[in-house]
Amino acid sequence: MTEAISKPRQQAEAAFAQVQTQFLARQRAFDDLDSITADRDEKTRRLRAARLEKAQSDALVARSEAKSKRA
User: What is the pTM of this model?
Assistant: First the structure.
């Protein structure tokens, strides 16, 4: 079943394939950027949590040292 495809049809399919390839490449780039952004946000969240935990720990140590100096 080999039908002859008209020249305009061939051109249209080639143009569509090119646009589709560009779209997929663009989508892949956006997906990569989204992945990078998600990774960065996760790292920021972890670092912020660690920083807050350390600040609370330091404050607790400072309070206990202040209490021990008073006693």
Answer: 0.61
